[in-house]
Design goal:
Bound molecules: adenosine-5'-triphosphate, zinc ion
Number of strands: 14
Radius of gyration: 31 Å
CATH topology of the largest domain: Rossmann fold
Shape: elongated
CATH architecture of the largest domain: 3-Layer(aba) Sandwich
Largest sheet: 6 strands, mixed
Structural class: alpha/beta
Number of domains: 3
Strand content: 5-15%
Order of helices and strands: EEHEHHEHEEEEHEHEEHHEHHHHHHHEEH
């Protein structure tokens, strides 16, 4: 399916790599839920490729930090393009981290690649597929590639505007002469700046050369942006097919609205505002419930549905753990049925995800497995619960957690997880407890008035039980991983490694 590299002459084995390029945001405003939807959906796809199918994805993303909208915004705000774009680029990256999107291996800014873009355009001109006009613009010559233009998307007409010096109205700009007051770069055609499409062809080629496996972006980018990228890149590399797979995500709309959520339409909800009401896990669940290619309606109702699905899974995991510990008494579990359902689910999930990443089918199979698990774990008010089957219940929990973890949804807040997560609160509580104990101990240890300063001080006999209680508390807490050390009249405390390990183990920095 993807680029295969044979390595190591002695032991010939195949490593599977996938070169992925994605069109990044144009950074002149806040990132919104439309961006979140596109980048989270592709993040889920990348996790599936990596973790389920064992394909290492090398992902590069461009940041569009120069274009007409950026220039307009800078004029409106009287701010320099560098300041404006760095501010929103930074915010975009932080938002992506909050949504737990695995960052690309490299982000590349257009403004730092203009020299590459100029060289790229020169080569396209040399290859006979572009021309410069007397105005100082450079256009792609669509007629030079015959009927290849439009093969990607079909017979859509380009709406390119620009100089009347164009050979064909469909020809699109590779280089635009700069207008007065606009940012510019020197080039063989005079002062100007790159067109939009050429930035992606150049940046992708500068990282991956002449072959790309996956190119991703929202469906609005399919035409003319990706059609034009293909024309330019194949004209530059003089190849028959530059990219193997274009993946386009459907648009996020506010429910009831026809137009997509977008910066320019000012109909957006920022990622930060969204995260005040919902979690990154809930947004992922919302994304999983539709195919990445489909449009998606955002509403309170659809978010509540995502939240409820997550809660169902979470409740099951908690019940399952209580059952495994013997705290939940149920009728005998139908073990064979659960093993069968588990195997069935594994096959369905694998097949669904191999079929153009059908996440709603896979998620529905997982929720169905949760349903069967829950049916078996109905609490019994009477009975001994002697016949127990913790292993199969544990197998269900492990598989369900593993799959959601693969999708980027954190380990559910089961009771075990909560104990680990509450580490910080625990520290504050232990600190208060240890201080209180210290005061009591200090009080109990204070010598009787008039007792000799030489030799062992004489304690008040009625305070000795307090001292004993302090010792008992210390001895009881030690096996729980809380070690109090009495040092003379004062004390110190620490949490042992056994207690501290949890949160570190839980951190997921891998792909
Ligand atoms: N509502 C949306 N739904 C899904 N994907 C979106 C949405 N809006 C933008 N994207 C995708 O996010 C990526 C970055 O887009 P871009 O920065 O151009 O966003 P935008 O808000 O549409 O901006 P503009 O209004 O300036 O066109 C693109 O792949 C784009 O297709
Ligand atoms: Zn692009």
């Amino acid at each position: 399916m993807f680029t295969c590299y044979f390595s190591n002459l002695k032991k010939c084995y195949i490593k599977l790599f996938c070169f992925r390029y994605s069109c990044g945001p144009t950074v002149y405003d806040h990132a919104h839920l439309g961006h979140a939807c596109s980048y989270v959906r592709f993040d889920i796809l990348q996790r599936i490729l990596t973790r389920l199918f064992g394909i290492t994805v090398i992902h590069a993303m461009v940041i569009t930090d120069i274009d007409d909208k950026i220039i307009k915004r800078c004029w409106e705000e009287n701010i320099s393009p560098t300041i404006l774009t760095r501010m929103f680029e930074d915010e975009f990256k932080k938002d992506m981290l909050l949504l737990k999107v695995v960052p690309p291996i490299v982000y590349l800014r257009v403004t730092e690649n203009v020299h590459h873009i100029v060289t790229f355009i020169e080569q396209i001109i040399r290859n006979g597929h572009a021309y410069a006009t007397s105005d100082g613009d450079v256009y792609f010559d669509i007629q030079s590639i015959g009927d290849r233009y439009g093969r990607f998307i079909g017979a859509m007409q380009s709406h390119e505007t620009g100089s009347s010096n164009k050979r064909d109205p469909r020809d699109f700009a590779l280089w635009k002469k700069s207008k007065p007051q606009e940012p510019f770069w020197d080039s063989p055609w005079g002062r100007g700046r790159p067109g939009w499409h050429i930035e992606c062809s150049t940046v992708a080629s500068s990282v991956f050369g002449s072959q790309l496996d996956i190119h991703s972006g929202g469906i609005d980018l399919a035409f003319p942006h990706h059609e034009n990228e293909i024309a330019q890149s194949e004209a530059y590399h003089q190849c028959g097919q530059w990219c193997n797979y274009f993946l386009h995500s459907g648009h996020l709309h506010l429910k009831g609205r026809a137009e997509k959520m977008s910066k320019s339409l000012k109909n957006y909800i920022t990622i930060k505002d969204f995260l005040k009401s919902y979690s990154a896990n809930e947004f992922r669940m919302f994304c999983l419930l539709t195919k990445y290619r489909s449009g998606i309606d955002y509403s309170e109702g659809s978010m509540q549905e995502a939240r409820a699905s997550l809660e169902t899974v979470s409740t099951f995991i908690n019940s399952a753990q209580a059952y495994m510990k013997g705290q939940l008494i149920t009728a005998p579990v139908q073990e064979a049925l659960l093993w069968d359902k588990l195997e069935e689910t594994k096959v369905t999930v694998q097949t669904a995800l191999a079929d153009d990443f059908d996440t709603p089918r896979a998620t529905s199979a997982l929720l169905n497995l949760v349903y069967h698990g829950n049916c078996q774990l109905q609490p019994l008010s009477k009975g001994t619960g002697d016949a127990r089957s913790p292993a199969v219940v544990g197998a269900l929990v492990s598989y369900i957690q593993e799959l959601f973890h693969m999708f980027g949804i954190d380990t559910f807040k089961n009771t075990e997880g909560q104990a680990v997560e509450s580490g910080q609160d625990l520290e504050a509580v232990v600190d208060q407890l240890a201080r209180f104990r210290s005061e009591v101990r200090g009080f109990a240890l204070s010598p009787q008035e008039g007792s000799s300063k030489m030799g062992k001080p004489k304690l008040y006999p009625d305070r000795v039980p307090l001292l004993k209680a302090c010792d008992t508390l210390r001895d009881t807490l030690a096996p729980l991983g809380i070690v109090i050390k009495d040092r003379g009249a004062s004390s110190t405390w620490e949490l042992t490694q056994r207690r501290l390990k949890g949160p570190e183990e839980n951190q997921d920095t891998s792909q």
